[in-house]
Specification:
The protein is an alpha/beta fold and 121 residues long. It is built from 3 helices and 6 strands, in the order E-E-E-H-E-H-E-H-E. The protein is globular.
Length: 121
């Protein structure tokens, strides 16, 4: 499983999470097999201004993601992630990737409810 966390800096699992996936400076990718972290990598967000949210979905999909953990996402990008088979989870409690990852792996993070999507998309 490859879990993507939008982040503000290139600080690995110590990074502060970005408030919204599309505006985060980086994507921290965590590969987990059988509940054990195998790899952590950080990728610059190439942006999505010219292609809209479809580019953001493609950017994250290109990282091999099957899971995205966010604290904010628009309704349309949410639909697009789900359409390409990327599960989206909602966590607005943990500021740091490591804490969000720990809760996710412990089963404390729920799949996002469409009511939690941002209205401006």
């Amino acid at each position: 499983m490859t879990i993507i966390f939008p982040t503000n800096k290139d600080d690995g699992i110590s990074a502060k999470r970005g408030a919204h996936f599309g505006k985060a400076n980086f994507y921290t990718a965590v590969v987990v097999i059988d509940g054990i972290v195998q790899e952590v990598s950080v990728h610059k967000n190439p942006g999505h201004a010219t292609g809209g949210c479809a580019n953001a979905v493609a950017n994250i999909q290109s990282l091999g993601a099957d899971t995205l953990v966010v604290s904010g996402i628009g309704g349309e990008p949410l639909k697009k992630f789900l359409a390409v088979g990327i599960d989206v989870y909602f966590d607005d409690k943990n500021d740091i990737v490591e804490d969000a990852l720990r809760d996710f792996l412990a089963g404390k993070t729920a799949k996002i409810n469409p009511d939690h999507s941002c209205a401006h998309h």
